[in-house]
Amino acid sequence: MDAARADAHAHDEAHAHDDAHAHDHAHTPAHAAAGRAGHRDRHTSAPAALRAEGIVKRFGPTLALDEVRLTVRPGESHALVGRNGAGKSTLVGVVTGLHRPDAGEVTFDGDPAPAFGDTGAWRSRIACVHQKSMAVPDLTVAENLFLGDYGLDRGRRLINWRGLRRRARDLLAEYGVEVDPDTRAKDLPVEHRQFMEIARALSFGARLIVLDEPTAQLDARGIQRLFDKLRELREQGVAFLFISHHLQEVYELCTTVTVYRDARHVLTAPVAGLPKADLVAAMTGESAGAAGTWHAKPAGADSASAPAPGPVPEAVPGSRPGSAPGSAPDHRAGRSSAGRAEPVLTAEALALDGEFEALDLAVRPGEVLGLAGAAAIGTTALGDTLVGMRAATSGRIAVRGRPVRSGSVPHALDAGIGYVPEDRHRQGLVAGRSVAENATLTVTDQLGRWGAVLPSRTREFAQSMIESLDIKTRGPEQPVSGLSGGNQQKVVVARALARGPAVLVALRPTAGVDVTSKNALLGVVRRVADEGRAAVIVSDELDDLRVCDRVLALFHGRVVATFGSGWSDRELVAAMEGVGERE
Ligand SMILES: Nc1ncnc2c1ncn2[C@@H]1O[C@H](COP(=O)(O)OP(=O)(O)OP(=O)(O)O)[C@@H](O)[C@H]1O
């Protein structure tokens, strides 16, 4: 057992016996707030808002939860963290009445959980605000708030629309949510949609809300407003279970953290005083490696300075428009000659009306270019345009000097542009198909003669991807729908790499990916460039951008600043927020 593991083990031991033990140390502001709000703490034996004990859940041969436990106190912000596939979503499914556990017990405020299938009773106990909207897009906020609950009209055939709107306004006001009840859900910014769903949950009586990666689609200001709102509600005794891969957010918002690893509970501890390295060690079972030192050595130095950049999976033979990893005589050739070499990807006067203004780009061999900016202000549209998802209003794109037809994904693929889309559910994966089939979707023409896909080649190729990207799956044959969210994202990246692209364009590639896999994925992107190809990362995640050699910050569809690799978080964030000064 190494030191870190021993450390994590010590934590396990310290906290394994009784979750409540962790709370002995947790006299945090939240607990004080809960006390002020009239909520008894454990010393006056208040029952837990949620207690799950000995939960077991299997999906076929997969043991997703192995006798895990979780206790959330009234008015507490409790983080549940763990690597992709650790069992977090499955636990949420169990405690929200979505999955029936194979064993174990769930109680709310000391009462047994409602009967399986009694949705009304479950939602008066607990609600989950998902990453993806659960609202009906074409209905207004008021209609969504009271969907399936026309209580004010019970016994009447007609819905009292005016009453509904008034009640919606009262409800939103009660929780301090400033959203117009007449807005259609599809027109709401993500942040307001989340507020609406929180208000809806509270209106059913729930005092415990699960937030599943709530900040995934918010910009920095949106995150602050969300956190302010959550703190305010916590003061009123509302408890939160916060699922996140952003550990700094766990430290900022939560008072207690529980870690699951490989379907098991490994740690529950107060957040204050828990070193981040210990938390990561508990998640991974090993000591945390140095992260984020992508540019530790000057350009042209040996690439060994980057943290654990796993090997880029071998692309399917004969499939690569880009240079083959093995064929690049000098793996660092790209970076060292980045200034001179012909660009791999160019865009000239590229523009898309309403999204971004005419801009020029040149990404050279060995270079990772970052396009930084919130999704809402043109960066996603720019990424989509580079990969053919959207047709530019004007301008040209070329790969190694060869023009690429605008607005055609197949043409972009043939030209050597590999694409990691942002929304893996909509654009990334075919749910019913296996990991192997999904990973090779872009190369089926290379996997057998005359269009026949040879299962053995598909499997072999998928297996190498599974190993290189550390995809947690039962094997290449498992349907992707059975993978955890983060592991699905890795399959999307595998698919983009399958063709050995000349340039890899990745939109927020690490969204939903755990802390260790994030480094592995970014390492793969880095290596694509180090092998003499090129990469573009479109993101507002600072960790994604750290791997870039050059970052262009966009604000309202315009490049407002350019950074080399030595930027500080503050100056890059300021540029993305439109208040930067560096050009
Ligand atoms: N519907 C399902 N069918 C089969 N296996 C499943 C299903 N849902 C989850 N699993 C398996 O259960 C395990 C736990 O998955 P879960 O989604 O709970 O992980 P997670 O911790 O939420 O991961 P992530 O951070 O990637 O979302 C994984 O091995 C996953 O493959």
TrEMBL record:
Record's keyword annotation contains Ion transport: no
InterPro entries per record: AAA+_ATPase (IPR003593), ABC_carbohydrate_import_ATPase (IPR050107), ABC_transporter-like_ATP-bd (IPR003439), ABC_transporter-like_CS (IPR017871), P-loop_NTPase (IPR027417)
Annotated stretches, region: Disordered: 1-49, 291-340
GO MF, any single term: ATP binding
Biased composition (Basic and acidic residues): 1-27
Keywords: ATP-binding, Nucleotide-binding, Repeat, Transport
Domain of life: Bacteria
Pfam families documented for this protein: ABC_tran
Domain (ABC transporter): residue spans on this chain: 50-287, 339-581
CDD domains assigned to the protein according to its UniProt record, in alphabetical order: ABC_Carb_Monos_I (cd03216), ABC_Carb_Monos_II (cd03215)
Record's compositionally biased regions (Low complexity): 298-307
UniProt-listed SUPFAM superfamilies: P-loop containing nucleoside triphosphate hydrolases
Protein name according to UniProt: Sugar ABC transporter ATP-binding protein
Native species: Streptomyces hebeiensis
